[in-house]
Design a protein that fits this description.
The protein is α/β, with parallel strands linked by helices. The chain contains six helices and six strands, in the order βαββαβαβαβαα. A six-stranded mixed beta sheet has the order 2-3-1-4-5-6, sandwiched between helices. The longest helix is centred in the C-terminal third of the chain and has 19 residues, at about 180-195. Bound molecules: guanosine-5'-triphosphate and magnesium ion.
Length: about 200
C-alpha cells in the first residue's frame, strides 16, 4: 500500500563546532549520550524511521562538521534537503552569531523551500547561559512568514529532541504527486541556471 510507504525526508544539521549536533542526532537515533563526543570530520549520516500523526517518516540525517575548515563542504549536504536544523549552544554567544551566518547562507544558497528549525541546545546548562531564549525566539520569528521553528533542547537530558524532529516534519509542505515533483524540480533548476548566466 503506497500510503504506508514512509516519506523520506532529508535533514541537514548545521552549526558551530561543539554545539551538540552529533549529540542531538545520537540522542534521536539511539537514545544515548556521550559526555565525550569526538568532533565530526566532514559529515556523518544516520537514518531513523518514526511515526508522526500516524504517518511513517524516514529521516535521512546529515550531521555536518562545524569546524570552519569544513565549511566549504556544507553545500553538498544541504543541497536537496527538505529541512535544516541549525544549532547553537545557549552557553556560548559566538555560536548564536555562527547560527545566524548559517541561516543567511541557507537563504542565499540553500533549497528555496527548505524548512528551518533552530535548536537552542544544552538547555541543561541554564546557570551558564549567554543567550536569552527571548532574543533567539524573536530572531526565529523574523525568518519566515510564520516564524522558524524554535526549540530548546538538551541532548544530555533528552529534552525536546524527538519533539524537534516531529515538529519539523509537521512543517513540511504536503507531498506532491511523483510526476509533478520531477517537473517542478527541473523547472526550478533551469530557472536558477538562467538567472545565474549572462
Ligand atoms: P562538531 O562535530 O565539531 O561540529 O561538534 P558537534 O556540534 O557535533 O558537538 P558534539 O555533539 O560533538 O558535542 C560537543 C560537546 O558538547 C560534547 O562534549 C557533548 O557531550 C556536549 N554536549 C552536547 N549536547 C549537550 C547537551 O545538551 N548538554 C550538555 N551539558 N552537553 C552537551
Ligand atoms: Mg559533530
Amino acid at each position: 500500500n503506497m500510503a504506508d510507504e514512509p516519506r523520506e525526508v532529508k535533514v541537514v544539521l548545521l552549526g558551530d563546532t561543539g554545539v551538540g549536533k552529533s549529540s542531538l542526532v545520537l540522542r534521536f537515533v539511539t537514545n544515548s549520550f556521550k559526555s565525550y563526543s569526538e568532533s565530526t570530520i566532514g559529515a556523518s549520516f544516520m537514518s531513523k524511521l518514526i511515526t508522526v500523526d500516524g504517518k511513517p517518516i524516514k529521516f535521512q540525517i546529515w550531521d555536518t562538521a562545524g569546524q570552519e575548515k569544513y565549511h566549504s563542504l556544507a553545500p553538498m549536504y544541504y543541497r536537496g534537503a527538505a529541512a535544516a536544523i541549525v544549532v547553537y549552544d545557549i552557553t556560548r554567544k559566538s555560536s548564536f552569531q555562527t547560527l545566524q551566518n548559517w541561516v543567511k547562507e541557507l537563504k542565499q544558497l540553500g533549497p528555496e523551500d527548505i524548512v528551518i528549525a533552530i535548536a537552542a541546545n544544552k538547555s541543561d546548562l541554564g546557570d551558564q547561559r549567554e543567550v536569552e531564549s527571548v532574543a533567539a525566539s524573536e530572531y526565529a520569528m523574523t525568518l519566515d512568514r510564520r516564524g522558524a521553528l524554535f526549540v530548546e533542547t538538551s541532548a544530555k537530558e533528552d529534552t525536546n529532541v524527538s519533539q524537534l524532529f516531529a515538529d519539523l516534519s509537521r512543517r513540511l509542505p504536503a507531498v506532491k504527486k511523483r510526476g509533478s515533483v520531477r517537473k517542478t524540480t527541473s523547472l526550478q533548476s533551469t530557472q536558477k541556471n538562467e538567472s545565474k548566466c549572462c
